[in-house]
Amino acid sequence: MARITKLEDIVSLCKRRGFIYQSSEIYGGLASCYDYGPLGVELKRNVRDAWWKRVVRMRDDVVGLDCSIFMHPLVWKASGHADKFADLVTVCKKCNTRTRVDHLTDHVEEHTEHVAIETAMADAQNLDKKVCPACQTVGRFTEPMAFKLMFETQMGANVDDTMTLFLRPETAQGIFVNFRNVLDSTRVKVPFGIAQIGKSFRNEVTTKAFIFRTREFEQAELEFFCEPGTDEEWYEHWKQARFDWYLNLGIKKENLRFRDHDPDELAHYAKACVDVEYKFPFGSGDWQELEGIANRTDFDLRQHQRGMRTLNSWYETKGDLGSIKLKEEAEDYHKGPLSFFDEQAKRRYIPYVIEPSAGIDRSTLAFLVDAYDEEEVRGETRNLLRFHPELAPTKVAVFPLVKKDGLPEIARNISDDLKKHFTCFYDQKGAVGRRYRRQDEAGTPFCITVDGQTKEDNTVTVRDRDSMEQIRVGTDGLKAYLLEKLGI
C-alpha cells in the first residue's frame, strides 16, 4: 500500500471531490480560511461525533457544555491570555517577511503552539545566525516584538456602554467558569469531566499546511477534574485513551507517537504535558501535534477565584484590563466558590485538572492523509480513501446498472430505505465503473448495484471499496448486512 508523501495530492482531491474549498475563492480567497464542502462537512461531523461518543456518551463520568464564544473580559485576564498570550516576532529587513522568533531557532522545533514570551525572548537575543525562511537571508532581522494573538471586537449599542471583547482563543475557559454551575445543577462528583466542542480563534503570525494551522478552528476539549494526588493516574489514563481513539478509527500505528514536553517547554500552569503527534506529509514527512494532554493542576480554578474577587476593580477602571491586577489569593483559597467538598472524606479542595485538547480540523486532516491510497488496477491508477466506516462521509452508494427497465425505481426505493439508517448516495449517471471510482475517491465503503438479476431473484450486487470484491445479497437482508459490516 503506497503512503502519500505530498500534501498537494490531498489538497487537489479535497477540491475535486468537494471536501474542502478555499474560503471566498471567487474573490481571490482569504488566507488560512477554508470552507467544508458537501463531503467535507459530513467527514468533519463524523470526526466530531466520534470524539463526543467516546469521550462523553460512552462514559458515566463526563458531561457536556456548549459555551458562548463571547465571554467577560476578566475571564481572559484571570486565565493569563490578556497579558501573556502572544508570540514573539521579527521582520526580515530584506524581504519584510514577519516570522515567529522560535521558528528561526534550530533547537526549538515547531511542536508547541506558542512558546512562552520569556523563553522566546531569551532565544531572541542573538539573531545574527538565523535564516529568513522566505528569502534565506542570514541575520538581518528587526528587534523582536510581542504579537498579540487574540482577536478583539466591540460590544455595545453606543460609546458609553461599549466594551472590548475577545474572540475566544480556546474553549477550555468556558468550562472552568462553569465548574460551579455544573456541580450545583447535576449529580456529578469528583472525579468527573466536562467536555466541549466549539470554534476558537487565534491571530496567528504564520499559518501552515492547508487546514493544519488556521486562524479559525474547531477544538474538542475535556477538562477532567480529580483529587490532588490522583492526577498522575488520571493523566496516564487519558494519555492512553486518546492515543487509542486514533488507532481505533484507522490511523496507522507507525504514523502516531507520543512526545513528552521538556521541562523548559511546559506551560507555566502545567505539571506535565504530552503531545499525540502524527507524521504529516509536510516536506518529506514531519511529526506534528494532533492534540495535547496536560496536567493543568489547580491553576485555572484558582485563577478564576482571584478573577471573581477582582470584579469590582474592573468596574472602577471602566474595564481597562491593562491597569487591573488580580487580587492576591486568600490563605483559605481551597475553600473558595470553585472548590469541591468531598462528603465522604469530609474535606474541601480545589481539584486538579487533566486536559486532553484536540483539534477537529487537524484530526480531519490526519484521517484524510492516512486514508489516502493509490494503487494500480488493470493498468490504471485507482485513487481511494480507506476511511474507517464510522468516519466515511457516505456509507453506501446505490446505482441502477442502466436507466431503464424499472431499475432506477428499484434503486431509488432501496436508497430511500437505507437513508433512514445512514448516509446514502444515489447515482445513475455514467458507466458503472466510473461511478465506482468516484465513490472510491469519496471514501464510500460499499456500493450497491441494481441490475437485471434483481428483478428475477431480489438480489443486488454489493461491492467492497477496499477489496473491490462483489457479492450478491438479498434485498430483504440488505440493511442488516450493511449495518453489521459498517459496525453501526
Helices, strands, pairings?
Elements: H1 7-17, E1 20-22, E2 34-36, H2 38-57, E3 62-64, H3 73-79, H4 81-84, E4 86-91, E5 98-100, H5 117-123, E6 145-148, E7 152-155, E8 163-166, H6 172-177, H7 179-185, E9 192-201, E10 216-226, H8 231-248, E11 256-260, E12 272-280, E13 286-297, H9 299-309, H10 311-316, E14 340-342, E15 347-349, E16 352-359, H11 360-371, E17 372-377, E18 380-385, E19 396-400, H12 407-418, E20 424-426, H13 432-442, E21 446-450, H14 452-457, E22 459-464, E23 470-474, H15 478-486
Helix pairs in contact: 2-11, 3-9
Describe the protein.
The protein is 30% helix and 26% strand. With 488 residues, the protein is an alpha+beta fold. A hairpin with a 4-residue loop joins strand 14 and strand 15.
